[in-house]
Amino acid sequence: MTVHKLGIIMNGVSGRMGTNQHLIRSIVAIRNQGGVSLPNGDVIMPDPILAGRNEQKLQGLAEAHNLARYSTNLEECLEDPYNVIYFDSQTTDRRAEDIRKAILAGKHIYCEKPTASNLEDSLELARLARAAGIKNGVVQDKLFLPGLLKLKRLVDAGFFGRILSVNLQFGYWVFEGDWQPGQRPSWNYRAEDGGGMILDMFPHWRYVLDNLFGEVRALSSLGVTHIPRRVDEKGDPYPCTAEDAAYATFELEGGIIVHVNSSWAVRVNREDLLTIQVDGTEGSAVAGLRDCKVQHRVNTPRPVWNPDMPSPLNYFDQWQQVPDNQVFDNAFKIQWELFLRHVVADTPFPWDLLEGAKGTQLAELGLVSWRERRWVDVPKLDV
What we know:
Elements: E1 3-11, H1 16-32, E2 36-37, E3 43-51, H2 55-64, E4 69-71, H3 74-79, E5 83-88, H4 92-104, E6 108-111, H5 119-132, E7 136-138, H6 146-156, E8 163-171, H7 197-212, E9 216-224, E10 229-231, E11 237-239, E12 245-252, E13 257-263, E14 274-280, E15 283-287, E16 292-296, E17 320-321, H8 331-345, H9 353-372, E18 376-377
Parallel strand pairs: 1-3, 1-5, 3-4, 5-6, 6-7, 8-13
Antiparallel strand pairs: 2-3, 8-14, 9-12, 9-18, 10-11, 12-13, 14-15, 15-16, 16-17
Helix pairs in contact: 1-8, 4-5, 5-9, 7-9
């Protein structure tokens, strides 16, 4: 058995998502399980170096998770040939510049989305990576959530017949920061720092829709800043310059209509923070983060509109749960393992920087639609 040690530059892991999902629940978890196995019996062992601007935070993270390497000098990390992968989970406005440096240094690229603040930069990164012949990937974690994996099973099995529509509801109330601290960082609400619901979440909806139901062909969107002032991490009030909610309709290939509400100013009265209802000629399903329930056409009740008396039907009781039938791991960790195998053993990994650019494209067109108050077509991308 050969152990393939991979030096990984992890830039931006002191942030919430970088620390929890990418460092602790992915890379540290992979190390604790003994690495990633390959079909020939070899093992990939990630060896991260934590990169960032705050040495104290980096040192604390390294010590807490028994890691030996951290640095505030990204250039030195990139110059070290031991480090073969560059990972980026910084704020959006810093990502593209450092990915360019990593590509020029010959590193394989794995990064959060959106890959850049605009489509031009996202496409440039995809072109640079292809020209350099390096392997590259973008985090598309929601594809590996248990609820969406079950939903994908139903799609692949033809359960829905012809899919008619999709209704996606996402969000929760993010505290304003005055009487309770906000659950999200303040830069999320500043457009000048790369914040905003459309730039944050439309890249997610692009890969979810493309991979489960069909490519997005057109959209109409509206952004709203419902909460105009919030209080930041230091207790200082600030004006919100980015939208905290977006309401959009997408048209997919095959005529599927998708309606998406995304909001950080909504109180949850549904079964999960993310719910996706799919309606088809043969059946319907509702998926959350972990669960998925179905109603086939032969089990569909016969509702009758009569507001003059209480409904005799409990509509929630008319659905059946899709069984797990497998053990589900952390969605971020699953994709990390796939990318590490891609780098070492050249296994397939379709979620590359071009796929990331598609997400940036949808966000950019969503902003155009909102600004110009019109439907916008979504052209195909190529590098």
